[in-house]
Amino acid sequence: MTEPSHRRKWMLQMQQPVPRATVFDRVAFLIGAAAAVWLAVIIAIQGVRTPWALAWLIPIWAITAYLVLPRLHRLLSDLYVPDYFFGRTRTADGLLGDPVNLGIDGTAAQLDEAMSAAGWHHADEITAASTWRIITSTITRRSYPTAPVSSLMLFGRRHDVAYQQEVEGNPKQRHHVRFWHSPPGWLLPGGAHADWLGAATYDTDVGISFFTLQITHRIDENTDIERDHVVSSVTEANPGAKVRVLRDFTTGYHSRNGGGDRFETDGDLPIIDVNGITPRAPLDISAPVPAIARVPLTVAVAVALVVLVAVVQLIEVLTDDDLWRTLAEADAAEMSLLLGVLAVFGLFAIGELIMAGMVLARGRRSRAVLILLLTVSIVFMAVDYMDGTTVLGLDSALLGASVQCITLLCLSSDSAGAWARRAARTADPEVGAPKISG
C-alpha cells in the first residue's frame, strides 16, 4: 500500500464512529469515578470520627490522589482538551503534558544506536518491580540509571521508547526524553516529515503534583536547554547524524505540564537525521501492541481481588458455627431454604472465580459481567448506607466496600479496556499503532 493510502486509512480510522465496546468502557470509567468519589467521602467521614483522624489522612490522600482526581481530570479533559496534534503531549490522566520539542528521522535501531552511543540508557518499563526499585532508590539515594519514566500520550498512545541520563547517581535528577513513532504518512503542521517525535525535559527533584497530588518528578522550566542537550549529545557522539531545525514550529510560549510545573520554549523543533548511522545489532521496538498482549497490572490486581474476596467469603461460610448450628436445628423446610441460599451463594462465588479466569484469558464479556456485578453491588451498598440499613464503620464492611470499589476502578481503567479490546484493534495490521522495526 502506498504512503498516501496509508495516510488516508489512518485518517479514516480516526473518523470512525465510536464502537459499542468503547462506549461501554467510557460508561464504566464514569461509574468507576463515581465509586472512587463515594469511597473517598465514606473513608473521610469515618476517619474524622476516630481518635486517629490524622493517621487516616494518608489513605484519604492516597485514594484522592491516585483514584479520584485522575478520574475526574480524565473525564473533564476529554471534554476540553483537543484530540489532535498541536505540539503538546498528554498525561495518562488527560492533562496537557510536556511540549513536543524534538524530531528524529531514522529507524528504531538507528535511533537506539545513536542514543546509546551518546550515553543514554533505555528506560525500564513501568512494572511493580521497577516502581518499587525507583521508590527505594529515591529514598536511599542509590543510582538507578534505567529508571522508568511516567507515561505520556501522543497520537492517542503511550510513548514507544524512552531514554534517560542520570545525574551523578542521583535518581531524583535526570535528563530524559520520550519518543513516539509517527503514524504512516503523517506530516507535521506545514508539511515537514519526521519519523519520530520526542519530548525532552530535565527532572530536578521529586515533589507533589499540583493537579493530582501524586508524587512525581519536578522538571526544569527551560525545556529548550534539555532539547539542545539531547541534540548536542547525539551529534557529538555520532558524526553521521545531521540536524535541521524547523524555526518557529510553534510560537514561543510558557505553560504548565501535567504535574503543574512551569516550562517555557522558543518554539523551534530540531530534527536529527540518524539514517547515516549503521546499527551494530538489529532492534525491534514495537508500539503498544505487545504491551496490550501482556496482562496490565490493573487487570491482575482486579482478578486477584475478585479471587481473594470469593475465597474469603467461602471460608467465612464454611467456618460459620452459627450457620451450621442453625442447619442442624432446622426442620426440613427451613433446611431446604437455607441449603438453597447456600447453593446460590456458592454458585455466585464459583461464577466469580470462573469469570476472573476468563478475564485473564481476555474475555471481554467476562470483564463486562464483572463490571456490571460490581456496579450493582456498590449501588445497593450505597443505597443501604444512605437509608441507614448498613452502617459502614472502620470494619470489615468498609473493607469490603473498598475492595469492591478498587476492583471496579481497576477493571474500568483505560489499560484494562484497551487490553480487552486488543482483538479489534489488531485485527487489521494497518490500523492503529504501527509496528516499528529496526
From TrEMBL:
<feature type="transmembrane region" description="Helical">
    <location>
        <begin position="51"/>
        <end position="69"/>
    </location>
</feature>
<keyword id="KW-0472">Membrane</keyword>
<dbReference type="Pfam" id="PF14067">
    <property type="entry name" value="LssY_C"/>
</dbReference>
<feature type="domain" description="LssY-like C-terminal">
    <location>
        <begin position="80"/>
        <end position="269"/>
    </location>
</feature>
<feature type="transmembrane region" description="Helical">
    <location>
        <begin position="295"/>
        <end position="315"/>
    </location>
</feature>
<feature type="transmembrane region" description="Helical">
    <location>
        <begin position="392"/>
        <end position="412"/>
    </location>
</feature>
<feature type="transmembrane region" description="Helical">
    <location>
        <begin position="368"/>
        <end position="386"/>
    </location>
</feature>
<feature type="transmembrane region" description="Helical">
    <location>
        <begin position="21"/>
        <end position="45"/>
    </location>
</feature>
<dbReference type="InterPro" id="IPR025902">
    <property type="entry name" value="LssY-like-C_dom"/>
</dbReference>
<protein>
    <recommendedName>
        <fullName>LssY-like C-terminal domain-containing protein</fullName>
    </recommendedName>
</protein>
<keyword id="KW-1133">Transmembrane helix</keyword>
<feature type="transmembrane region" description="Helical">
    <location>
        <begin position="335"/>
        <end position="361"/>
    </location>
</feature>
<keyword id="KW-0812">Transmembrane</keyword>
